[in-house]
Amino acid sequence: MRKPASFYFFKRKPIPTCPDRYGSWRTVADLLVFGAQERLRVEWMVFYYTVGKKNATLTAQHFSISRKTFHKWSRRFKDSKYDVRSLADQSKAPRHRRKWEVTLIQEDRIRHLRNRYPYYGKKKLKVLYEKGYSEGISTWKIERVIRRYKLYPDKRKQEKTARKRAQARQKPKKESPT
């Protein structure tokens, strides 16, 4: 026979409750360490259900946001059954990121060709690859393998060039006043 579900070895701490659910939304936001923008969204919802009397237009005007933006967050909040975590920022990264398209066999072949002909460029290596292995390959794939394994004939010169390019990216060009 099972013991009742209320039996525990250790007493649990009481869960702090707020007098109203809107205050609890703010408390949850504090516990989740929401950022300023996320806390503002919680305030949108609190305003909407209290002062705004469920008027989306009034809420949007009060916070100087578009109604479309408010409806987006309101819908997300309602669909989650009023879970405050749904108002948090979500990742903006793409769901499917591009993958390295060079196979290990292609990579090995390119490295072999580059070591054999260190001064040839990617276009010449492409021609040699296609003749030698009777398989098409892009110059971009060849360039990516060369960069990945740093297959440069003069490594010092290449490092110097890379440093110069990095510095040039940091300093914007000055436009002449003509």
Would you kindly provide a brief summary of this structure?
The chain has 178 residues and is an all-alpha fold. The protein has helices at 21-31, 36-49, 56-63, 67-79, 104-116, 122-133, 139-149, 155-170. The chain has two domains: 21-87; 104-169, no CATH class.
What does this structure look like?
The chain is an all-alpha fold and 178 residues long. Helix content is 55%, strand content 0%. Helix 1 runs antiparallel to helix 2, helix 3 crosses helix 4 (67-79) and helix 6 packs across helix 7. The longest helix is centred in the last third of the chain and has 16 residues, at 155-170. The model has no long low-confidence stretch (mean pLDDT 88).
**Strand count, sense and closure of the main sheet?**
none
Order of helices and strands: HHHHHHHH
Radius of gyration from the alpha-carbon trace, in angstroms: 30 Å
| Count of discrete domains | 2
Find the count of extended strands (DSSP E, 2+ residues): 0
SS strand fraction: under 5%
First and last CA, distance? 92 Å
Mean of all residue-level pLDDT scores = 88
Number of helices, counting only DSSP H or I runs of 4 residues or more:
8
The general outline is elongated
